[in-house]
Amino acid sequence: DAKTTQPPSMDCAEGRAANLPCNHSTISGNEYVYWYRQIHSQGPQYIIHGLKNNETNEMASLIITEDRKSSTLILPHATLRDTAVYYCIVRRSGSGNTGKLIFGQGTTLQVKP
Amino acid sequence: NAGVMQNPRHLVRRRGQEARLRCSPMKGHSHVYWYRQLPEEGLKFMVYLQKENIIDESGMPKERFSAEFPKEGPSILRIQQVVRGDSAAYFCASSLRTGTSNSPLHFGNGTRLTVT
């Protein structure tokens, strides 16, 4: 599976948009970009995923560049409860793949009042 | 629809005892994954199971660890003769299907194992 690179930490003011970048320059055509977050002492929480089109749900938006080598997770109005470690993961698709997620170190997002 | 249920939430074992961690996947999910998170470290894949089959155990320690997902009942992660280094949070995840990779994994809130 392709490797991802994320900044180790970021700050965001409460109520502002949080834009979390991720580089995945070696991504291949059948690999999805997934985002999870882990709030302290809880299990990872699924946020959003996409293949090549931008995606939006009730939690966030995912912007994937046209060449698919990078993406940005956007939390439109960050709250203190969004403080967490955010993981960008590239996941292979297709038959014969186990679908397991390989977690890196992620980005620790600190939302400040 | 209940999420992934793990129990117990906290488990304390003395060195040399056995630990059994249980995971009930989301309704309709037949794919289960186990992960381990050591203190202050990242999440590490351990094993992937479908009903009655171990598909990928590339992350499992070679000794003392085993996993099963029987036709009926929860998935079980079993650690025999626990040592202090086994102290960690163990997370289970389930998914509906895997082949397309368009089916997210959903995680439980983990079992925190402490070995004294």
Outline the secondary-structure elements.
The complex is a heterodimer of chains A (113) and B (116).
Chain A: E1 9-13, E2 18-23, E3 31-38, E4 45-50, E5 55-56, E6 61-64, E7 70-75, E8 84-92, E9 107-112
Parallel strand pairs in A: 1-9
Antiparallel strand pairs in A: 2-7, 3-4, 3-8, 5-6, 6-7, 8-9
Chain B: E1 5-7, E2 10-13, E3 19-24, E4 31-37, E5 43-50, E6 53-56, E7 65-68, E8 75-79, E9 88-95, E10 106-107, E11 111-115
Parallel strand pairs in B: 2-11
Antiparallel strand pairs in B: 1-3, 3-8, 4-5, 4-9, 5-6, 7-8, 9-10, 9-11
Q: In words, what does this structure look like?
A:
The complex is a heterodimer of chains A (113) and B (116). Helices cover 0% and strands 46% of the residues of chain A. Chain A is mainly β and 113 residues long. In chain A, strands 1-9-8-3-4 form a five-stranded mixed beta sheet, with no helix packed on it. In chain B, 0% of the residues lie in helices and 48% in strands. Chain B contains no helices and eleven strands. Chain B has strands at 5-7, 10-13, 19-24, 31-37, 43-50, 53-56, 65-68, 75-79, 88-95, 106-107, 111-115. In chain B, a hairpin with a 6-residue loop joins strand 7 (65-68) and strand 8 (75-79). Chain B starts with a strand and ends with a strand. The chains are: A mainly beta (113), B mainly beta (116). At the A-B interface, strand 3 and strand 4 of A face strand 4, strand 5, strand 9 and strand 10 of B.
Overview features:
heterodimer; A: 113 residues; mainly beta; 5-stranded mixed beta sheet; 4-stranded antiparallel beta sheet; 9 strands; 46% strand; B: 116 residues; 11 strands; 48% strand; globular
